[in-house]
Design brief:
CATH architecture of the largest domain in chain A: Roll
Helix content of chain A: 25-40%
Number of strands of chain B: 30
Strand content of chain B: 15-25%
Helix content of chain B: 25-40%
CATH class of the largest domain in chain A: Alpha Beta
Number of helices of chain A: 5
Structural class of chain B: alpha+beta
Shape of chain A: globular
Number of helices of chain B: 18
Largest interface: A-B, 56 and 58 residues
CATH class of the largest domain in chain B: Alpha Beta
CATH superfamily of the largest domain in chain A: Beta-grasp domain
CATH superfamily of the largest domain in chain B: Aldehyde oxidase/xanthine dehydrogenase, molybdopterin binding domain
Oligomer: heterodimer
Chain lengths: 161, 783
């Protein structure tokens, strides 16, 4: 059981060379082996979405993947969203709109929304709500999360040409 | 005012938000920057060098006698350090009560830290594995062999009681609350309505599961519990007693907490174990619960059956409510004793003027997960019952639902309104302030009740099943007796405010900083608010029962005012101006009304001058630092009304909540943005309990909801736009800021309002007798 596999996880542009058991989840590896504890584990079976990270541009549940499956792939976590001291528009919008209370689900929502809006900046509102309904929040009742994401979406689209 | 306030300290009506600088404003939260950047520090994010990981071995049967526990195979696994059963910790008593300490007769039902001879629910901890790695600990737990002789289970609280242990019934107590002559009330009644009602088993289900770390500092002989929440100081008291340690040798530390809702942060067996193991094994111990464990082991609540009747005269004036309650406590009595059952009974009459009342509660143990407080404990339940009664009575008498309620609301002129119970030791309720009818009028208007009735009639004509519902309730918050705070200004002008409060995500730091900033006259963003650290302040009430803002807020206000007085006293001497001429604006002492550039002294400069030994002190204490207390004997009573519109799909049995309004009088809001956040979030949890969430059990006591696929939290897809109407018509006279709590007003009436709306939608008054109204139950109602 102690057989390990050497892998490289590229997280927020930085390579992490780690040695893990084949059964080790990506979420545990990101948190414990790479020290990025902003990715949270809420249910361990892919329902709550707190562990959502972006892998090669797609939002993924890191609790449902083994670390070895992410070997060599480009992973983005909440720690990589801000540029230095400058917050990402979604991060600012969550603060401005009181889109978080306990903050536990927040990194998952931020990464989900980032991936969705990057892929489809002009996403229809109904589709946006549909995408956001895949993550769970127990504090906010979602209203302010929707407000925040809508506000950030406008900002991320930038001025119309 | 009547003389009900005789002897109590009351306060004048506080200033309105418009007259304030920062208190009452929609200030952005101080908490947010680390949380949106991944720098939060929740229990799982804390690590100590050389820590061991704990994993519990839990019962897979609901009731039985433990014949044997074989740990031999598990111990052989490399990396396993120790495995404990009750034999290893038999000197430890059960987890003690925190609240309701008077509940002597319930003491035999407390939960041992590890099962002692018997298991009583699926999930009951039997053994604890300590290993170098959490994966290994889990492997080892799988290898522990437990042999159990099954015993008959009690699943329903209303079934014939069984045996908790030889000679001890599963009816732990028969509790009673009453006032007035109930027999006479029913004898002279014009109308009597009887209902048999059920509230389902729900829980808070915070997004972060429980977690605890035990660390023993042998150099200082201090045992530390990390990952604590809600009531760190109270838990420390209990732990000190249970572990037989001197208070100075045990400290509790709160970090970020991923949601509380009443259930997180109570003392559980695992918290005790990590501490004992940290000392005995000489290494830090980390325990992080998995979601399946959480859904089987963390406190649940709400499950009650009410056989209830209501009496009214020919005009619909209420004469009495008579209730027989079967309260499902689950397998053990946890830290709250009988509090939830008692809160259910004492808040049953709500905002109505009722001359006679009797509630008898069978407080019963069952072979299910133990229960305790979940957000608005006893109130979500009692509001559902009371408002079901009002709807049923209105229907039976042919009186409009709103009109019947209006006729029975406690009037503004009746405030303060006293409810005294006959039973000895049962605390009276003194509703401090309220204008219930005014809120009803405002709520009906904001919800467009009359217009909606017209719109709905048109939709019904087209075959849709749409309806409106209402629930009126009284909440309680800010229970005393007292809390303290410390505040200081450093040489840079930054401030530290130390409280014994706790933060569960509700914006505690921001609200406390706003209160302090307003009182002192500084920028709230320069205040660091400390909470949940027992080594920083000796006393603390934590965050429970919507108490933090009122009580700790009261202490913070007193503290900041005292600091202001100290600053002005020295400012007066240094600026050579009378105290009465001075003000503090944005951290600078200035002459009132003076133009910019006039005499001034910043708090930072003053702090620099007040060093020990400074001549200026002239015998007074150094530093710009103070400590103060707020004392109150009284609870405050906010109140609210929930309005719902639902649509029922008769084909699928699905109920869709189309719109929802929370009308709520908060007295004075510290931060309306945070209040709205609390109310909306609470309402969505309440919607879960009304329509989706249920901890169901099989006939053998097997839990049927142990994943988030079975226990259905509302997602964004099920939530309508929720509107909030916050009013400030009845500030509390019991505290200087006039504030009342907000934590539970969002959830309280949701079950009642949704049931009311469903009845209306399907045209069957009184149809809903059980929460949650799942599609299966709805199909049965429609059949």
């Amino acid at each position: 059981m102690s057989d390990t596999v050497a892998i490289t996880l590229n997280i927020n542009g930085e390579d992490h060379r780690v040695s893990v058991e084949a059964r080790r989840t990506l979420a545990d590896t990101i948190r414990e082996d790479c020290g990025k504890t902003g990715t949270h584990i809420g249910c361990e079976h892919g329902v709550c979405g707190s562990c959502t990270v972006i892998i090669d541009g797609e939002p993924m549940r890191s609790c449902l993947m083994f670390a070895v499956q992410a070997d060599g792939r480009k992973i983005r976590t909440v720690e990589g969203l801000a540029k230095g001291d400058e917050l990402h528009p979604l991060q600012r919008a969550f603060i401005d709109n009181h889109g978080l209370q306990c903050g536990f689900c927040t990194p998952g929502f931020l990464m989900l929304a980032t991936a969705v809006l990057e892929k489809e900046p002009d996403i229809a509102d109904g589709d946006l709500l549909d995408a956001l309904s895949s993550n769970l929040c127990r504090c906010t009742g979602y209203q302010n999360i929707i407000k925040a994401v809508r506000q950030a979406a406008i900002e991320m689209r930038g001025p119309r040409k | 005012m009547t003389d009900h306030f005789a002897g109590a300290k009351t306060y004048p009506v506080p200033p309105t938000t418009e007259e304030r600088t920062i208190l009452g404003k929609r200030a952005v939260r101080l908490e947010d920057p680390p949380l949106v950047t991944g720098r939060g520090r929740y229990a799982g994010d804390i690590n100590f060098p050389r820590q061991l990981h704990m994993r519990m071995v839990r019962s897979s049967l609901a009731h039985g006698v433990i014949k044997s526990i074989d740990v031999a195979e598990a111990l052989k696994l490399p990396g396993v350090v120790a495995i404990w059963t009750n034999d290893d910790i038999n000197e430890l008593g059960p987890v003690d009560f925190r609240a309701d300490r008077g509940a002597e007769i319930l003491k035999p039902y407390r939960q041992p830290v590890l099962a002692k001879g018997r298991v009583r629910y699926v999930g009951d901890p039997i053994a604890a594995v300590f290993a170098e790695d959490p994966y290994v600990a889990e492997d080892a737990a799988e290898l522990v062999e437990v042999e159990i002789d099954e015993l008959p289970v009690v699943v329903d609280s209303w079934a014939t009681p069984g045996e908790f242990e030889p000679g001890r019934s599963t009816e732990g107590a028969l509790l009673k609350h009453s006032f007035g002559d109930i027999e006479a009330a029913f004898k002279k009644a014009h109308v009597i309505v009887e209902l048999d009602l059920f509230t389902g088993r729900h829980s808070g289900v915070p997004m972060e599961t429980r977690g605890a770390l035990g660390y023993y500092d042998s150099a200082k002989d201090i045992l530390e519990l990390h990952g604590a929440a809600k009531v760190p100081h109270r838990n420390r008291e209990t732990l000190v007693k249970m572990l037989g340690r001197a208070p100075k040798g045990l400290h509790v530390h709160e970090s970020h907490v991923g949601g509380g809702f009443g259930i997180r942060g109570e003392l559980y067996p695992e918290d005790v174990l990590v501490l004992v193991a940290a000392m005995r094994l000489g290494r830090p111990i980390k325990w992080i619960e998995d979601r399946r464990e959480h859904l089987m082991c963390a406190n649940q609540g709400r499950e009650q059956r009410h056989k209830v009747r209501i009496a009214a005269d020919k005009d619909g004036k209420l004469l009495g409510i008579d209730d027989e309650i079967f309260h499902d406590q689950g397998a053990y009595v946890r830290t709250h004793g009988a509090n939830v059952a008692n809160r259910t009974m004492c808040m049953m009459t709500g905002g109505y003027d009722i001359p006679a009342y009797r509630a008898v509660c069978h407080y019963r143990l069952t072979n299910k997960t133990p229960c305790a407080t979940y957000r608005a404990p006893g109130r979500y339940e009692s509001t559902f019952v009371r408002e079901r009664l009002m709807d049923a009575l209105a229907d039976k008498m042919g009186i409009d639902r709103i009109e019947l309620r209006r006729r029975n609301l406690i009037g503004k002129s009746q405030m303060p309104y006293l409810i005294e119970f006959e039973e000895q030791g049962v605390e009276e309720l003194l509703y401090d302030s309220g204008d219930y009818e005014l809120l009803l009028d405002k709520g009906l208007k904001a919800f467009r009740w009359d217009e909606r009735k017209v719109e709905i009639a048109a939709r019904r004509a087209k075959g849709e099943a749409v309806g409106l519902g209402i629930a009126i309730f009284v909440e309680e918050s800010g229970r005393g007796p007292s809390d303290g705070a410390k505040m200081s200004v450093d040489a840079t002008g930054d401030m530290e405010l130390i409280t014994g409060g706790a933060s569960l995500g509700q914006g505690f730091e921001t609200s406390m900083a706003q209160i302090a900033a307003e009182a002192l006259g500084v920028d709230y963003q320069r205040i660091t608010v400390v909470h949940g650290q027992t080594d920083r302040i000796a006393q603390g009430i934590g965050a429970h029962a919507a108490r933090a803002t009122v009580l700790t807020g009261g202490a913070v206000n007193e503290t900041a005012l005292k600091l202001r007085a100290k600053a002005l006293e020295f400012g007066s001497e240094l600026l050579q101006l009378p105290v009465g001429d001075l003000d503090i604006v944005n951290g600078v002492i200035v002459k009132k009304g003076a133009p910019a550039g006039g005499p001034s002294l910043s708090l930072a400069d003053l702090a620099k001058k007040l060093t020990p030994g400074a001549k200026l002190l002239n015998g007074r204490d150094p530093h710009l630092a103070v400590e103060a207390w707020f004392n109150t004997d009284h609870t405050v009573f906010p109140y609210g009304i929930h309005f719902a519109q639902v649509r029922v799909d008769k084909q699928t049995g699905q109920t869709v909540c189309e719109s929802f309004l929370i009308a709520y009088d908060i007295g004075r809001a510290v931060n309306p943005m945070l209040v709205e956040g609390q109310l909306v979030g609470g309402a969505v949890q309440g919607l879960g309990g009304a329509l989706f969430e249920e901890f169901a059990y099989s006939e053998t006591g097997e839990p049927l909801a142990v994943t988030m696929v079975d226990y259905l939290l509302p997602t964004l897809g099920e939530v309508p736009k929720i509107d909030v109407l916050i009013t400030e018509d009845a500030p509390s006279p019991m505290n200087p800021l006039g504030i009342k709590g907000a934590g539970e007003g969002g959830i309280n009436g949701v079950g009642g309002a949704i049931a009311s709306a469903i009845d209306d939608a399907i045209g069957k008054p009184g149809a809903v007798v059980q929460l949650p109204v799942t599609p299966q139950r709805m199909k049965a109602l429609l059949a």
